[in-house]
Automatic annotation (TrEMBL), chain A:
Membrane topology listed for this record: Multi-pass membrane protein
Record keywords: Cell membrane, Membrane, Sugar transport, Transmembrane, Transmembrane helix, Transport
Organism lineage: Bacteria, Bacillati, Bacillota, Bacilli, Bacillales
Pfam families linked: BPD_transp_2 (PF02653)
Residues annotated as transmembrane: 12-32, 52-75, 82-101, 107-127, 139-158, 190-210, 240-260, 281-304, 324-342
Protein name: Simple sugar transport system permease protein
Signal peptide positions (record): none
Organism: Paenibacillus hunanensis
From TrEMBL, chain B:
Organism phylogeny: Bacteria, Bacillati, Bacillota, Bacilli, Bacillales
Organism in which the protein naturally occurs: Paenibacillus hunanensis
Residue span(s) of domain ABC transporter: 5-240, 256-499
GO MF, one example: ATP binding
Protein name (database record): Simple sugar transport system ATP-binding protein
InterPro entries from the UniProt entry: AAA+_ATPase (IPR003593), ABC_carbohydrate_import_ATPase (IPR050107), ABC_transporter-like_ATP-bd (IPR003439), P-loop_NTPase (IPR027417)
């Protein structure tokens, strides 16, 4: 009973936030002078209107859910990991390299590519954690800046050493992966691939881990009150390794899933221009780091994006309406995030002050 | 005497819960009216209604005979009601004068007139017998002066009735005496006080009248001359309190042995701990007295592994645990009721259940997952045994009152079943009934052969429970007394650093 209630509450928040976003969007549409009902009908159709569009939305949701889950776990432990994008990019690149150069049967290469993507994403994230623990480099800043390093490094790799020189197109991308290492499609002719199953399983697994395991308990207490955790014998260093490694690994899996399931190669900018990483962070913040809620929020955000494409195809309302809605959401989310961040800082400062 | 303030038939309901029922209460001019009761008895609710922070469900509030409706504290202040909160609300980087005149600053043209503010404040302090230095920064002042500042602030705002919420919780014995003398002086000048407190000897010393509250209902209202501490506690608790005493015990071998602990302070400041050695034997309660901030917190942090000493050794239950991780020390035999329940002892955002699990993670681990059903069973026993008032085990800890949270923490640590227990301020802010229970449990554990290190700023608590008493002053052990020798005066003298000067 209680579990169900808590899960429902976890889902309620993102839904309410999206509703408020939709109201803001409605105002924008009215200002343009178009019909709100028609526009939103097109948006709904574009996101969920047919089986094709539904699977399209779920495909787009897959990396958002995975990065969102990773960020949720780190947030729960009190670590502000803003590096989902970079961790995803490196995970994707590593998966592409594995898929291209590892010998062996296709299914094995595919699994290895996913694992390597997770490990690389995890290590990249852990590196920021290490700098925090060892040198006191603020995690929020280091993870943010490491995004640039990762993206530009991956861009260089596919522009020079790993560049596909077989085709005539001068794109910055790796060669195409062999078809037998691709993640299988769930339905023929649809874009949805097995990565979505992984994302759903990950959401359930992270939920059980955070809410029902002893290690998850320690992570939550560390995030709630680090002094209480220290007093109770929770080892911050070890928990940081677990949280940052897992968090980065999920982002890495998101990147690997995109490469193996959708692009079938590493294409420069494909992961960053779609803003999966930031959408993931947003999904987490909308759902207050509840894993199931994060998955729901991930699907809603993806629906907003695919739905907006439908709007642009079929009406005079520009794609930017979706940006208005997203911006409203971002506003809510950043206010919330800023509040959380300041609250933590304040609590740390209040330590022992008598006044 | 004229009645300044009156509550008539006040009832306050939160949903189905009745916090106050049919309260009749009044304050006369120049009187100190004490309001006593256990945690959750409804004292705070009553005062919040007087101060405009809550509105009564039924009943009337009268000021100078006229009915009033306060919707926020500023209205209460305008009617001459002021409140000094338990936690001081001063800006540490402002001077005392600035803190006092805030909201009613004297101006010269468009500018804040600092000099005239300081003059006014100095004059105010002298008039009411509470002198302060108006130019000092609030953050640099001892807590006694900060409190004086709070009271002066309320007086500056023109209050005739001043509500003092647990005013002596953070003060040293000397400061308490001064405070009580000061409010008696103010009462003689015609100011009235509502004194909310747990400490019955303060009530007996200062109050003219006493109102006792239990479960939201007034159970007694009498003049201080007509009653005694025993009668008041009976009215508060609703039953007879058992007198406890230390039975003569034969201490066993050492369970904690600390040798020459040193902990450096910041650059250029005195060491936080200077050559501290002490031991606790099985079946013994060792009390550490001292004004807070003289190294007690640091000492406990060193023992429990939260802080590394620069020199010295800590031996627990026969093993050297100097600088060991917290978990290892706990497993070696430590249970720990921490001094600050919100900072160290609990997570406000987590549920009661999660707060109770801390330190018991290994016991309730089943294939890596938390065995919540067993935990629930055990914790329901704690809730019953310690009469912890909570909605359910899934309530967030922040909704528990301070005393109930303290009981939860105590229950959790008593359940650790370790031979050595640190009890730091174990009854801070808890009511008489809970205090009795926690003290009883400490003595029980001690009889069972556990060693207990008791740190408390309450001298009565130290004197009541300890077999030996150590006094800390500026990071050192300033003196050791046996329970038989110790008197309140002797300890107070050592706490103030008296011995070293003589």
């Amino acid at each position: 009973m209680n579990v169900i209630k808590r899960t429902l509450l976890g889902m309620l928040q993102p839904v309410v936030a999206v509703l408020i976003g939709l109201i803001a969007g409605a105002v924008a549409i009215l200002l343009i002078g178009d019909s709100v009902v028609d526009t939103y009908r097109e948006m709904w159709n574009g996101a969920f209107g047919s089986f094709y569009f539904l699977t399209n939305t779920l495909t787009r949701a897959t990396p958002i859910i995975l990065t969102g889950l990773g960020v949720a776990l780190a947030f729960r432990a009190g670590f502000f990991n803003m590096g989902a994008t970079g961790q995803m990019v490196l995970g994707g690149l590593a998966a592409a390299i594995t898929g291209l150069y590892m010998p062996g049967p296709g299914w094995l290469v595919m699994i290895m590519a996913l694992l390597v993507g997770m490990v690389v994403g995890g290590l990249w994230s852990l590196f920021a954690g290490y700098m925090d623990a060892r040198f006191g480099v603020n995690l929020l800043i280091s993870t943010l800046l490491l995004n640039y390093i990762a993206s530009l490094f991956a861009g260089y790799m596919v522009s020079f050493p790993l560049k596909d020189r077989t085709g005539s197109a001068a794109m910055s991308q790796t060669p195409m992966l062999e078809a037998d290492v691709w993640l299988p499609k769930l339905f023929s002719g649809m874009s949805l691939h097995a990565g979505f199953i992984l994302a759903v399983l990950a959401a359930v697994a992270i939920y059980i881990f955070i809410h029902h395991s002893v290690a998850g308990y320690e992570i939550r207490m560390l995030g709630n009150n680090p002094f209480f955790a220290a007093y109770g014998g929770v080892k911050r260093g070890r928990m940081m390794v677990v949280a940052m490694l897992t968090s980065g690994a999920l982002a890495g899996l998101a990147g690997a899933g995109e490469v193996l399931g959708t692009q079938h190669r590493y294409l420069d900018g494909a992961l960053t221009s779609a803003d999966y990483g930031w959408s993931g962070i947003m999904a987490t913040l909308l759902a207050s780091s509840h894993p199931i809620g994060t998955a729901v929020a991930g699907i809603l955000l993806a629906a907003l994006q695919t739905g907006a494409m439908g709007v642009e195809r079929n009406t005079n309302v520009p794609l930017e309406v979706a940006s208005v809605i997203q911006a409203t959401l971002t506003l809510f989310v950043s206010a919330r995030f800023g509040y959380l961040f300041l609250k933590r800082r304040k609590e740390r400062k209040n330590n022992g002050s008598a006044v | 005497m004229t009645v300044l303030l009156e509550m008539q038939g006040i009832t306050k309901k939160y949903g189905d819960f009745t916090a106050n029922h049919d309260i009749h209460f009044d304050v006369r001019k120049g009187e100190i009216h004490a309001l006593v009761g256990e945690n959750g008895a409804g004292k705070t609710t009553m005062m919040r209604m007087l101060y405009g922070m809550e509105q009564p469900t039924a009943g009337r509030i009268l000021v100078n005979g006229k009915e009033v409706h306060f919707h926020d504290p500023s209205q209460a202040i305008r009617h001459g009601i002021g409140m000094v909160h338990q936690h001081f609300m001063l800006f540490p980087s402002f001077t005392l004068a600035e803190n006092i005149v805030i909201g009613g600053e004297p101006k010269k043209g468009a500018f804040f007139d600092r000099q005239s503010a300081a003059d006014k404040v100095r004059e105010l302090g002298e008039r009411y017998g509470m002198p302060i230095d108006p130019w000092k920064k609030a953050g640099d002042c001892p807590l006694g002066i900060q409190q004086r500042t709070e009271i002066l602030k309320v007086l500056y705002q023109g209050a005739d009735v001043i509500i003092l919420d647990e005013p002596t919780g953070v003060l040293t014995p000397g400061e308490v005496k001064e405070l009580l003398a000061a409010i008696k002086g103010l009462a003689a000048q015609g100011k009235s006080f509502i004194l909310i407190t747990h400490k019955l000897h303060e009530v007996m010393e200062a109050a003219d009248r006493i109102t006792v509250l239990r479960d939201g209902v007034i159970t007694g209202q009498m003049a201080a001359n007509d009653t005694d501490e025993e009668q008041i506690s009976r009215l508060m608790v609703g039953r007879e309190l058992v007198q406890m005493s230390r039975a003569a015990r034969e201490p066993g071998e050492k369970v904690l042995d600390i040798q020459a602990i040193k902990l450096a302070g910041g650059k250029g400041s005195k060491p936080l701990l200077d050559d501290v050695s002490l031991s606790v034997r099985r079946g013994e309660i060792v009390g550490i007295a001292g004004i807070s901030g003289n190294g007690q917190s640091e000492l406990l942090q060193v023992i429990s592994g939260l802080r590394q000493p620069d020199r010295g050794t800590v031996e627990l239950n026969g093993a050297d645990v100097t600088g060991a991780p917290v978990r290892q020390i706990r497993e070696q035999g430590l249970a720990h009721i921490p001094e600050d329940r919100y900072l160290w002892g609990a997570s406000r955002d987590a549920t009661v259940l999660d707060n109770g699990l801390m330190g018991h993670q290994q016991r309730f681990r089943k294939r890596g997952l938390i065995d919540r059903s067993s935990l629930r069973k055990v914790m329901n026993e704690w809730v019953q045994r310690f009469a912890i008032k909570t909605g359910s085990l899934d309530t967030q800890a922040q909704f528990l009152s301070g005393g109930n949270l303290q009981k939860l923490i105590a229950a959790r640590e008593f359940a650790q079943q370790q031979p050595f227990l640190i009890a730091a301020e174990p009854t801070r802010g808890v009511d008489v009934g809970a205090m009795e229970l926690i003290h009883g449990e400490l003595l029980e554990r001690c009889r069972g052969g556990d060693g207990i290190l008791l740190v408390s700023s309450e001298l009565t608590e130290i004197l009541k429970l300890s077999d030996r008493i150590l006094v800390m002053y500026e990071g050192r052990i300033a003196g050791e007394l046996t329970a038989e020798q110790a008197t309140e005066e002797q300890i107070s003298l050592l706490m103030a650093g008296g011995k070293r000067q003589s």
